[in-house]
Task: inverse folding
């Protein structure tokens, strides 16, 4: 734990809620999360401290299909289970929520997940979950995204993002500086 503690107390740590933009190194894929959604995620995380938590990301893609635009992050479904270093995201109410999203022209984009007081690197369990989702027809999502928030919400937190294409290795997306006008 001590090692992880130092890892997230680095200069990369963020303080207030601010919008997040990530891009693949080749620029062919990205993720954009506006400030109100980031604030909501941090709120869910703070509420569950010191336990992990998570939920799903809903939204749409931009016209050139190289940027996922998140419009909603859900809290953990009621049948989720969590401890300080593990989280099992339940499914209660999820089909209903996703059916509504699809009717509204929105999509399941991926998962968000909280590593309390720790770094935002995905575990092997996190990777397996996303690879399973990429293959699962129920989500209609061949390139699910994973957003991991680490550290302590609002005070000293950080975020990482990965995409898990169905038939290719995962890609770590790079955090992009956000212009104040976009916040
Ligand atoms: Zn995890």
Result:
């Amino acid at each position: 734990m001590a090692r992880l503690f130092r890892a997230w107390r680095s200069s990369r740590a963020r303080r207030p809620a601010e919008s997040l933009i990530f891009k693949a190194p080749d620029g062919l894929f990205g993720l954009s999360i506006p400030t109100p959604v980031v604030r909501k995620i941090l709120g869910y995380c703070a509420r569950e401290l010191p336990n992990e938590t998570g939920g799903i990301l809903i939204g749409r893609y931009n016209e050139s299909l190289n940027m996922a635009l998140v419009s909603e992050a859900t809290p953990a479904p009621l049948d989720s289970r969590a401890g300080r270093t593990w989280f099992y995201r339940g499914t209660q109410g999820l089909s209903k929520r996703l059916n509504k999203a699809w009717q509204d022209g929105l999509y399941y984009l991926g998962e968000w997940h909280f590593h309390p007081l720790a770094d935002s690197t995905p575990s092997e369990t996190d990777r397996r979950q996303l690879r399973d989702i990429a293959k699962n027809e129920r989500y209609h999502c061949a390139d699910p995204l994973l957003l991991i928030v680490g550290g302590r919400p609002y005070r000293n937190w950080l975020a990482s993002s990965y995409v898990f294409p169905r038939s290719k290795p995962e890609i770590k997306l790079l955090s992009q500086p956000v212009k104040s006008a976009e916040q």
